[in-house]
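Key idea: predict the complex, not the pieces.
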Amino acid sequence: MSTISTTSSVLSARGLHHSFGQTKALRGIDLDVQRGEVLAVMGPSGSGKSTLLHCLAGVLVPDGGSVTYRPAGRSPMETSALGEPKRARLRLTDFGFVFQFGQLLPELTAADNVSLPLLLAGTRRPEALRRSTELLERLGLNGMGTKLPGELSGGQAQRVAVARALVASPAVLFADEPTGSLDSLASENVLTLLLELVREAGTTVVMITHDARTAAYADREVIVRDGGLGAGYRVTA
Amino acid sequence: MNPALLKLAVVGSRSSYGRLGGIAGGVAVGVCLLLLLWGGANGLSARDDRGAWLRETGLPSVAAPLTADPTASGPAMPVPLTADTVLMEANPVEVFRDRLINRRDVAALDPTTVKIPGIGSPPAPGRYYASPALQRLIEATPRNELGDRFGTFAGTIDDAALPGPDSLIVVTGATETELRQNGRAFLVSGFTTNPYGGSAAAYNTVLSIGAIAVFFPVLLLISIVTGLGAAQRRERFATLRLIGASPQVISRIAAVETAVPSLIGAVLGVVLALVLRPAAAQIPVNGTRMFAADLTTGPASAAAVVAVVVTASALVAAHRTAHAGIGPLGVTRAVHEKAPTMWRSVPLLAGLAAMITAVLIIRVMGVRLPWLESPLLIGGFVLILVGIVAIGPWLTRLVSRMGLRQARSAAGVIAASRIQKTPVATFRSVSGLVIAVFVVSVFAGGSSIIESTEAPPTRPGLLQPTSLHATVGAGSTPAQVADAARQAKELPGIRNAVVGYGPAALSERDAGPEIYLHAEDAPGLGFKDIPAEETVSVDTSFLWTTHPLALNPAPAASLDEMVPIVIVLGTDGTPEAMDRARTALNGSGITAIPANSPLDLNLQSTTRLIQGLAVLAYLGMFVAIAIAGLSLAVATASAILDRKRVLGLMRLMGMPVSVLRRIITREAAVPLLTVLLLSVGLGFLVAWLMVTFIDDTYRVTWPAPGYFMALGISLLLALGAVIATFSLIRGSTAVTATRFE
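Result:
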C-alpha cells in the first residue's frame, strides 16, 4: 500500500466497508483523491468500483468507515455522516455526474438538459440557458441546443451529459464509464473535451472505466479487486 | 407460442407481479362497476315496467251522447260499470310528510273479472291493499295522521307490481257512488305495460345518455390500467427481440401478457359484482332502493363483458407494442407523439352540432322525428365525450407551450417540456377526471331545474303554505261540512277551519266565480286588509294562484242561501299537524278532491321525468369521481414508473425529491385545469340542450351547492391521487434503487 497524503486531498476514504446482503462489496478501502487530479478507478466487473464511486459521491452511505470531503474555502465534512437531504444538496452544488447512458431527460432540449443544475441552484432561466449554450459550443455542439436527446448521436448526447455535469462548475466530477457506450473515435473526442474543460477549471475527476486506453487519460489510476484496492494501485503521473 | 418464453416475459420479477396485480385489480374494479351499472340500468327499466300499471288512465266514466246539432252535446251520462271493468280514480296529491303516495281508489262489481296487478281482485269498499313500505309507515304512525285515510288493511301488494321495496302505493276500495261523485274516475278493463306513456322516447334517450355518461369513465379506467408499466414491458420485449423473437411474436406475447391478468381481473370483477349486488341495491334511486334481483345482468351479459374487456385489452396491447418501435437494442427509434392539431376539435364540434340539431328540430321546426332525434342526441353526446378526450391534448399542448416560455424553475421546465412533447400521454392521466367533471356538470345542470322550483310564498292574499284545503263535493250539506270543520278544529295543531260558500259546488255547472265567507274567518286564511262587512268574497283562483288577491265586500250575499264549496284548515305548520288535517279532510267524506297544500304541488311537478335522472346523477357523480381519482392515481404512478430510471438519475445527481414532486403535480395540474373550465361549460350546455329537448319551458339555473361540493371533491381527489404517488416517487427513484437499474 502506498503512502497517502491527506493535506491536499479533496476526498478521503478511510476503512470503507459496504455489503449488499451477504455480498461484501467493499472491504476496508482507504483512498485519497487529490485536488485537481484525474483519477481512474479500474477493475473487473463486480469488483466494487461503482460502489466505491457511489460511497465517495455520497450516493451510498458506507456500512463502515468514513468519507471526508474538503471543499476549497470551507470546513471539511464527513459526507458519510450527513443525512440524505444534505448529501443531495452537496451532490447538486459540489459534484457533477456523468453516466454511461440514459441520463438525459428525453423531453427536454439539449440546452434545457444542461441548464437543469443551474435552475435547481436558483439561477434565472435566461442566464442558465446562456451559460448552457456557451458550454455546448465549447463542446462542439454549436446549434444543437434546441435538439432533443433522441435527435442526437451517442457521442453528441454524451457531450451534452458532460456539459450538464460541468455547467455548475462542480469541485468533483464523478464519471461512471462515461464513454462505455461510444465507439473509440467518439470516445476519444468526448474524453479530450472533458479533460480540457476540467483541467482548465481545476475540477477533480473520479472516473470508472474498464478501458485501459481511457484510463491512460488519467493522472493516476487505482485498481479495485474483490472490494479492496488491488496490487495495481499506482500513480501514473 | 412457447409457454416458457411467455412465462419468462410475463412474470420475471417482483415488479412484474406488481404490474400484473395492478392490471388485474384495476380491471376487476372496472368490470365490477360496469356490471353493477349495467344491472342498475336494467333494474331501472324493470322497475318502470313493474310500475307501468300505475300509469293506466282507462276510459272516461261519463259520455255525452251525440245530438242533432254537431256543435252541441247533450248532458253527460255515466258509462255503466260492468263485470269486466273497474272504476278507478287516481289521487294526485296523497302526501305524507314530504313523500308522495301513489293512491288508486277502485270500485268494482262483485264479481268482477278485472285483476289488479300485485293484488288480484279489487278490495271491497273501506278496505285497502298497501305496499309493504307504506304499510310499515302506517303501522309506525298515529292513525289520525295516515292510516285513517285508507280504511281497513286487507293485504300487501306483491313485489311484482312494485317499482322498488320503498315504493309507497295504496289501492283502496270504494263504492261506485263515491267515485262517480266528482267525475274524475275512469273505467279500466286492463292495465298498460308501457311505463312512460308518450314521453317514452325522451325518457329512453335521456336514460341512455345517463348510462353512457357513467360507463365512459369506467372504460377509461380499464384502458389506463391495462397500459400500466408500458416502459418496463418495452425493456423486456427488447431483450426478447435480442434473443431472436420476431416483432409478431413480441406483439403476441404482449397480447397474452395483458389478456391473462385482464381475464383474472374480469372474472374477479364478476364475482365482486355478485358479492356487492345486495349492497348496491341499497342505494336509493328516485326515492326507492332496488330489489337485489333488479341488478342481475345474467350470465350471458357477464360473459360478454369479460370477453369484450379481455379481447379489447389484448388487441390494444398488441397494437401498442407493434407500434412502439422495439428492436433488439431496445426502443430503436424515438416514439414521438404526433403533435395534436386543431383537427382534434372536430368530434367535439360535430357532437355539439348533432345535439343542437336535435333540439332545433323539435323546438324551432316544431316537428317530432323520433327516428332522427334520439340518434342525434345520443350520438352527439358520445361524440362530445370522445371530443373532450380528443381536444384535451391539443389544448394542453397550447397551454404548456406558453408555460414553457414562462418557466423559471427546473420543475416548471421539466413539466412543461414533457407536457409539450407528450400531450396525449399527459392528458390521459387526467382524462378520467375531466370526463367526470363534465358528467357531473351535465347531471347538475339537469337537476337544477328541480332545485329551481320556487317555494310557495307566505303572503297575505295567498293560501298559506301551512294550510290544507279541499273543495267540497256536490251534495254535502252545510251541517255535514260544519261538523267536519268542528271535528278538525279539535285536533292538535289545527288552528282554524274556514268554510267558503258559493251558489253551487265548484264541480257543478252553476258554480260561481267567487268564494264567499264570514269576514271574521278571513284572518284564518291569512288576509290582513278585511272589509268592514259581515260577508266578504274572493276570486276562486285564490285556491291556486301565486299572485296575492284582495277580499271584496259582499254585503248583499247571504251565506245561508249558499252551499259550502271549500274548506280550509290552518295548521301550526308541523308535519304531524299537516298530516292530521289531511287525514281528517280526506276521511270526512265531504271533499270532492283530496286535501292538498300549496307545498304539495312541488311534489307532483311536471319535472318528475328529469327528477328520476337527477337522483341517478348523484350515483353518476359518485361513480365518475371515484373512478377518475383512481385513474389519475394509476396514470400518475404509471408515468413515474415509466420514467423511474431517468428521474432516479436526476435524484442521484442531487435533484431534491421536492422538485420531483412538483414536476408530477404540475404534470397533472396543467392538463386538468386547462380542460376543466371547458368541461364545466360544456356540461351545462349539454344539460340545457337535453332539458330543452324534453320541454322548452324548463330552465337550467345555478346548480345546487352539492355540485360545487362535487367539483371541490374532484379537485381534492386529484390532489390526493397525486399526493398518494409521492411515496412511489421517493421509493422508485431512490438512489439505491437507481444504482441497480
